[in-house]
Write a structure and sequence with these properties.
Oligomer: single chain
Helix content: 25-40%
Structural class: alpha+beta
Number of helices: 8
Distance between the termini: 6 Å
CATH superfamily of the largest domain: Naphthalene 1,2-dioxygenase Alpha Subunit, Chain A, domain 1
Number of strands: 13
Shape: globular
Order of helices and strands: HEEEEEEHHEHHHEEEEEEHH
Strand order of the largest sheet: 7-13-12-11-10-9-8
Length: about 350
């Protein structure tokens, strides 16, 4: 149970995006809201950890922190993945060498763990919907755009502290009208006249075609497998990017670290751990151009949310021109709204 008082529902946040106002600005700055989000969102939904191939052998392990809850994940001698709260156990590196290892002997409480497209996720809620169920349609589309998706391996990590609430990052990720101004090289890479969007209850998908191989971002080879990009999002804070070029997957995890701070965690998957020249060009552009452009937007928007002259705005909705529409932002904010105003 949370120690925080119930949060009143905003009266003008409506089910229909065309008539709704946005979430109030204070939901992006308030410590009480952040506390409720930990309890009602992040402790109850799927959290990205890393790559399955990092846990390919018995005794190998990964650790993660779900906002403020430390979790470790290991592969047992029976080849089964398991996740636990650490409890009183401080010898994760020695799991493989402990004879007749029983997690309960060390005060270890189990946590749900699932894999998806070669990735590992955990969930602190024993009653949550299965990850494979809520992501089924999204994963089907991702595999169609990138054959061999499940066999890619982790090649590069990148992290960046950001002075913005995690929801500011997700809002930006789910709309595309900012791209024309903020991302000139991205506009050269992708033909936004081919823009399509679709969604399920807990996922969204955006797709666009590369029509200029010799574009300002990086070159796309005629022999490259991926010609049409697909950018997807999984509730609450994980986005996936399959970009034009060789087979690839980018994972963008928007990690909350405080009411007005986040950690951008990026991981890039290719067919081998060592990127090719073209894959390195894609990495250089993403890390040195695309991410800084978006980071400036995140932090500027967060600054504006603190203004006493701003409380709420309206959603831009144009379902006939999805590249100019914020209906996926409304979908995300509805999930946040419903989680926060629901009593424990």
């Amino acid at each position: 149970m949370t120690d925080y008082e119930p949060i009143p529902a905003p009266e003008n946040f409506l089910d229909q995006a065309e008539h709704s106002w946005t979430l109030p600005a204070y939901w992006y700055t308030d410590s009480k809201i952040f506390g409720k989000e930990k309890e009602q969102i992040f402790y109850k939904n799927w959290w990205y950890v890393g790559a399955v191939h990092q846990l390919s052998k018995p005794g190998e392990f990964l650790t993660t922190t779900v906002v403020d809850q430390e979790i470790f994940i290991t592969r047992g001698e029976d080849n089964v993945l398991r996740a636990f709260y650490p409890g009183n156990f401080h010898g994760a590196r020695g799991v493989k060498g402990i004879e007749n290892f029983n997690p309960s002997d060390f005060g270890l409480v189990s946590v749900r763990v699932e894999t998806l497209i070669g990735l590992v996720f955990v969930n602190l809620d024993a009653n949550a919907d299965a990850l494979t169920d809520i992501s089924e349609s999204m994963v089907k589309d991702m595999r169609a755009y990138c054959p061999g998706l499940d066999d890619l391996v982790l090649s590069r990590n990148y992290e960046l502290q950001t002075a913005a609430n995690w929801k500011t990052l997700v809002d930006n990720d789910l709309e595309s009208y900012h791209s024309a101004v903020a991302h000139p090289s991205l506009m050269g890479l992708l033909d936004y006249s081919t823009f399509e969007v679709w969604e399920d209850r807990f996922t969204t998908c955006h797709a666009m075609t590369n029509s200029d191989p010799d574009n300002p971002a990086y070159k796309v080879g005629a022999e490259d497998s991926v010609k049409r990009a697909i950018y997807t999002w999984l509730w609450p804070n994980t986005a996936f990017f399959i970009a034009p070029g060789p087979k690839n997957l980018g994972v963008f995890q928007m990690i909350p670290t405080g009411p007005e701070s986040s950690l951008q965690r990026w991981e890039f998957y290719f067919e081998s751990e060592q990127p090719t020249e073209s894959e390195q060009a894609y990495l250089d552009w993403t890390i040195n151009t695309l991410i800084p452009e978006d980071t400036a937007l995140y932090e500027n928007v967060q600054h504006g949310l603190r203004s006493q002259g701003y409380s709420q705005g309206r959603f831009v909705i144009n379902r006939n021109r999805p590249e100019w529409s914020e209906h996926h932002v409304h979908q995300f904010q509805t999930l946040v709204h419903d989680a926060i105003v629901t009593e424990c």
